[in-house]
Amino acid sequence: MNFIPYGRQYIDRDDIESVIETLESNYLTTGPKIREFEDAIADYCGAKYCVVVANGTGALHLASLALLNKGDRVLTTPNSFLATSNSILYVGAEPIFVDIVQDGNIDLDLCEEELQKNSSIKAIYAVAFSGNMVNQKKLQYLKNKYNITILEDNAHAIGAIYNGIKAGSCVNSDCSIFSFHPVKHLTTGEGGAITTNSKDIYEKLLTLRGHGMVKTLDMKPWEYEMRVLGFNYRITDIQCALGLSQLKKLDAFCERRVKIAKRYDKAFENSMITPLYRYSGKSSYHLYVVQVDFSKVNISKEELFIKMREKSIGLQLHYMPINKQPYYKSLGYGTEFTPMMDRYYEECFSLPLFPKMSEKEQQYVVTSLFEVFNV
Ligand SMILES: Cc1ncc(COP(=O)(O)O)c(C=O)c1O
Question: Which residues of 127-151 are buried (b: 16+ CB within 10 A; e: fewer)?
Fold first, then answer.
């Protein structure tokens, strides 16, 4: 069996043709594909505006510059990739780590407790972990009651729908971000996007993406003005051409992911391997995470990873708690009371899941797991 990673891109002939077409055009960057991709994403998500950027981390950085000020306190999750809370630090704001609930998402009830205790909290950065959108009703309630800023990190969740609300539509948030890294639902190699319904935020993001530079019609032809300290987070037309072609297949990718997830759900019924959550229609399944009580099985998690690797299967752990990383510890983090996250880190791991994964490969993953656990 060839190596089965936890995630992998799906590229077909149409994608390759789209890239070639752009390579043969007059614009490799700052050309028409940028706006075309932005409009297509905004349209797909049902948001008013979209800004595409070089990667998901850049999307988080720019969104944080637009939403936060130095010293702002932001509630966020320890169960994410580093970039989520790093983006809060980039702008001199202060992340506050809140525990998670069973499905791996931030505990919004605990967020409310924090908001009641501390009226200076400015924002919540909520991650739709593994593609499973955060509770939109609760998000709306918190936003209205406490007048806070909300960013949804939907890097895992493009294509997800929660009670009719699409990931990235920003119905209950100020900004949402996506990542187009190859393991995600759709890829541009590296890439990211921010969606928003605010014209003001949109204009700030556009300026910040390009060095803080502005050109207006009343200026002389060569003139430009730098009004804020911006960056170069541009994405190329080549990448956007790939993204546009991938976006056409996004619903099919999500369907494939859901189908695979449902098969895993079924395979683990009545076993010691428990899905982090079972299919309920609100996840677009970037990841399929399972939970095992390692005190009740024959091997440790480390041995499991090694043995599965020997069988050419790549397991992964999403994520190590961010607040316990050495850098965060050096800032004084790491001792927060997060029993759910601690348990998650002890017991959970991600199985291979990607649209091209065959039924045979999936069956092999399941049998290998049971074999290694000796059940
Ligand atoms: C939840 C989350 N947010 C942000 C990012 C950053 O995205 P990128 O790798 O495109 O910079 C990732 C990437 O893995 C992610 O998983």
Answer: bbbbbbbbbbeebeebbeeeebbbb
Residue that is written with structure tokens 């020997």 in the block: 310
Q: Is residue 158 lining ligand 1, measured as CB closer than 6 Å?
A: no
Q: What is the pTM of this model?
A: 0.98
Residue matched to tokens 């708690």: 321
Please list, in sequence order, all residues whose beta carbon lies within 8 angstroms of the beta carbon of residue 262, skipping any fewer than 6 positions away.
Answer: 279
- What are the residues whose beta carbons fall under 8 Å from the beta carbon of 301, sequence distance 6 or more? 292, 294, 346, 349
Q: Which pLDDT belongs to residue 1?
A: 86
For the stretch 309-362, pLDDT in tens is: 999 999 999 999 999 999 999 999 999 999 999 999 999 999 999 999 999 999
Ligand 1 center to 293 CA (angstroms): 28
Q: How far apart are the first and last CA of the chain?
A: 22
The confidence score (pLDDT) of residue 375 equals 85
Pocket test of ligand 1: the residue of 52, 53, 57 to mutate, having most ligand atoms within 8 Å of its CB, is 57
The pLDDT assigned to 198 comes to 98
Low-confidence ranges of the chain (pLDDT < 50): none
Distance 153 CA to ligand 1 centre (A): 8
Question: Does residue 49 have a cis bond before it (omega within 30 degrees)?
Answer: no
The pLDDT tens digits for 44-68 are 999 999 999 999 999 999 999 999 9
Q: How far apart (Å, rounded) are the C-alpha atoms in residues 366 and 370?
A: 6
Beta carbon of 155 within 6 Å of any ligand 1 atom: yes
Query: At 125, which amino acid appears?
Result: Y
264 lines ligand 1 (CB under 6 A): no
| Nearest residue (CA) to ligand 1, atom 16 | 81
